[in-house]
Design brief:
The complex is a heterodimer. Chain A is mostly helical. Chain A has one domain: MetI-like fold, CATH 1.10.3720.10. The relative contact order of chain A is 0.14. Chain B is mainly alpha-helical. Chain B has a single domain, classed as MetI-like (MetI-like fold). Helices cover 79% and strands 0% of the residues of chain B. The longest helix of chain B has 33 residues. The chains are: A mainly alpha, B mainly alpha. At the A-B interface, helix 3, helix 4, helix 9, helix 10 and helix 11 of A face helix 2, helix 3, helix 7 and helix 8 of B.
């Protein structure tokens, strides 16, 4: 216990980095996922094939390989990247971690949204068209909000998976919760005390995320519940 | 085509190792999943609570942390215990065994949920019919519940397998010579990390594609006679 109390500051900074990486890549992944999901539903092959290739590659390969490909693999193209002025970005593990996690979660989220878009009842789209909505307006007012609502339960799972995946960034030297734990273990040899402690922190974070989503779902399902007795 | 500098065979050996680890872990996970599902549906609250604890904890903690905890933590616990009993031992866990056990343990929790759902999907009338024919609970389980449950479990198990296959890349962190580790070695020796990590990712993609095909075949086989 003394080990944990004595290094609370380091654990706290690790926790902050874990949460920060999760939130930033989640936001970037979400921004990416919506257009990819729409492209995936497009009819023209030039539109859906790239979107399909992207989601297929990122969902079919391990996150660890993707991380290494970005962080170590970029070194093979150092000269080209330097010429393009991008090397300052790719030599930073923080940037590579964010980029890879965002691309990874973007691919999963796009598939989840696609399911949501497909789940929008045809009748609602027909009703909107009958009201004179078309194209962008139809998507903005009817399809996307409904798809978001339908995708929410699956999306909460993806958020939990992403939170846990961020532990991999410790392998490319970032000091997230897992990274801090590994450094402290190398110094103190208190293996299971420290791992069990951070395991409990991850567990608490996971159930906090699930609780937040349950609250959001509760709010969004107000029209499905019975009115309170007057 | 990419020049692998003669390291192609090494990557192939790594892929075989990855597949072996994944198959063994999946087998263990299925066994644990069946036990967990039966415990979750049991009438005894103690068993139910133990199974709930298992799935809650395992699904809430990152795989990497669990793998490191088992690989570095279990020998430490064993040595500490041995020391308090006055019998100091040096105990090391083989990365292969640690990897298979941990992955099996983790994905057993996911399989538990799959099997639980599948057991609940078998219509109640089937069990009632079996018991009205005079079958004992054990026989009804073996002949009626279990075979029908498998059909409902197959799609879920397919998903667990796809996730598990990708998670095996993590065992390279505990120095197991899997596809990822071999790619690391080759990348270090040739200074062409992109070439080798990209090849490794393509091999993983190939494994995924073959798995998807096999899962589709398996599902069609399980649904024969239903259409």
């Amino acid at each position: 216990m003394a080990v944990i109390v004595g290094h609370l500051g380091q654990f706290a900074s690790g926790l902050v980095l874990t949460v920060e990486v999760t939130l930033l890549s989640l936001a970037a992944g979400l921004l990416l996922a919506v257009p990819v999901a729409l492209l995936r539903e497009a009819r023209h092959p030039a539109l859906w094939i790239p979107a399909y290739g992207y989601t297929f590659y990122f969902r079919g390969t391990p996150l660890l390989v993707q991380l290494f490909l970005c962080y170590y693999g970029a070194g093979q193209f150092r000269d080209q990247l330097e010429a393009a002025g991008l090397w300052v970005w790719f030599r930073e593990p923080y940037f590579c971690a964010l980029l890879t996690l965002a691309l990874n979660t973007g691919a999963y989220t796009a598939e989840i949204f696609r399911g949501g878009i497909r789940g929008v009842p045809r009748g609602e789209i027909e009703a909107a068209r009958a009201c004179g909505m078309s194209g962008i307006l139809l998507y903005r007012r009817i399809v996307l909000p409904k798809a978001f609502r339908l995708a929410l339960p699956a999306y909460s799972n993806e958020v939990v998976f992403l939170l846990q995946s961020t532990s991999l960034v410790s392998i490319i030297t970032l000091m997230d919760l897992t990274g801090v734990a590994r450094v402290l273990i190398a110094r103190t040899f208190m293996v299971y005390e420290i791992f069990i402690f951070i395991g409990a922190l991850y567990l608490a974070l996971t159930y906090f995320v699930l609780w937040v989503f349950r609250c959001v779902e509760w709010r969004l399902s107000a029209h499905m519940r019975q009115a309170p007795e007057a | 085509m990419m020049d692998l500098h003669g390291y192609g065979w090494m990557l192939w050996e790594g892929a075989v190792m990855t597949l072996v680890v994944a198959v063994l872990a999946m087998t263990l996970g299925c066994v644990l999943g069946l036990v967990g599902a039966v415990a979750k549906l049991s009438v005894r609250s103690g068993l139910r609570r133990a199974a709930d604890l298992y799935t809650t904890v395992v699904r809430g903690v990152p795989e990497l942390v669990l793998i490191l905890l088992v690989y570095y933590g279990v020998p430490t616990v064993a040595q500490d215990l041995a020391e308090t009993w006055g019998e100091p031992v040096v105990f090391d866990l083989d990365p292969f065994i640690a990897g298979v056990l941990t992955l099996g343990f983790i994905y057993g929790a996911f399989a538990t949920e799959v099997f639980r759902g599948a057991f609940l999907s078998v219509p109640r009338g089937q069990i009632e019919a079996a018991s009205s024919l005079g079958m004992r609970p054990g026989l009804a389980f073996r002949k009626i519940l279990f075979p029908q449950m498998l059909r409902y479990a197959l799609p879920g198990l397919g998903n667990v397998w796809l996730v598990l296959l990708k998670a095996t890349a993590l065992v390279s962190v505990i120095q197991l010579e899997d596809l990822m580790r071999k790619a690391q070695i080759a990348a270090g020796a040739t200074r062409e990390p992109f070439t080798f990590y990209f090849s490794a990712s393509l091999l993983f993609l190939g494994l995924t594609v073959v798995s998807l095909y096999a899962i589709r075949r398996g599902e069609r086989w399980a649904e024969r006679g239903l259409r």
